[in-house]
């Protein structure tokens, strides 16, 4: 399951899935999505795995999608690697814990809606910049975020699309606790190990019950958002935003209706 940029290991009943592309701030490409989807599915089938831990490198969790990779190989259809990963995480039967340090951008933030426990360092910075780059929210965030914090606060985070702190993420109930950066991974792993020591069937059943009532709507939201996200990725607003980024200038959306 391990690849150059996705490292997996199992110890103490915990499968750790580590994003390991520090030179790109752990930006996710198609191969990384495929590796993570496969790891999550394998974890569900492996009786030696009782819990899953998602993490990045010491100073970065995930800077979102590798835009160049997405533009060269845009996701198409329900079997696109990104959608396979989204379904694998949303449907994971075993508990998933996340340890977040540094930037958590785009999918680096929205994937946290689908884990069971999340812990962040004091320097963690969260950002859902979809509107800023001419696209729309994904990973059922347009459904789950208003449920969690109400429409007004959700609109502030995804329509103004400004970065927010770990303290704000805690206030929004996106994470369980804020810790000193150096303690995040050890704390999250300790929680994962504790989960791995719980009665496994009782734990899986409890997670199923907690997610059961929202699961059909989450699955629907993932695909409905994707139907908008995919064409927008190659649309004129996204092209202007990404061209402006590469040219180090402010994008001009005044010509779009």
TrEMBL record:
It is found in: Peroxisome. GO terms for molecular function: delta(3)-delta(2)-enoyl-CoA isomerase activity. It comes from the Bacteria. Pfam families: ECH_1 (PF00378). Keywords: Isomerase, Peroxisome. The keyword Transmembrane helix does not apply. InterPro entries: ClpP/crotonase-like_dom_sf, ECH/Chromodomain_protein, Enoyl-CoA_hydra/iso. Its main location: other. This is Enoyl-CoA hydratase/carnithine racemase.
């Amino acid at each position: 399951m391990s690849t150059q940029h996705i490292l997996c290991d199992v110890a103490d009943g915990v499968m750790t899935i580590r994003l390991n592309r520090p030179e790109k701030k752990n930006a996710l490409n198609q191969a990384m999505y495929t590796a993570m989807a496969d790891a999550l599915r394998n974890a569900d089938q492996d009786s030696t795995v009782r819990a899953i831990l998602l993490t990045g490198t010491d100073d970065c969790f995930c800077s979102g999608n590798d835009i160049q990779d997405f533009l060269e190989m845009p996701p198409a259809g329900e079997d696109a690697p990104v959608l396979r990963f989204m379904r694998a995480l949303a449907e994971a039967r075993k508990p998933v814990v996340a340890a977040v340090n540094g930037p958590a951008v785009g999918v680096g933030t929205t994937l946290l809606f689908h884990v069971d426990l999340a812990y962040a360092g004091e320097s963690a910075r969260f950002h859902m910049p979809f509107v800023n780059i001419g696209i729309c929210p994904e990973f059922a965030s347009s459904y789950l975020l208003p449920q969690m914090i109400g429409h007004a606060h959700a609109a502030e985070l995804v329509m103004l699309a400004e970065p927010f702190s770990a303290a704000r993420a805690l206030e929004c109930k996106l994470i369980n606790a804020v810790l000193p950066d150096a303690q995040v991974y050890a704390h999250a792993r300790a929680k994962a190990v504790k989960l791995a020591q719980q009665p496994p069937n009782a734990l899986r059943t409890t997670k199923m019950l907690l997610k059961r009532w929202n699961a059909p709507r989450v699955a629907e939201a993932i695909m409905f958002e994707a139907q908008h996200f995919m064409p927008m990725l190659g649309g004129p607003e996204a092209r202007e935003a990404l061209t402006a980024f590469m040219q180090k200038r402010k994008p001009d959306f005044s010509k779009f209706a």
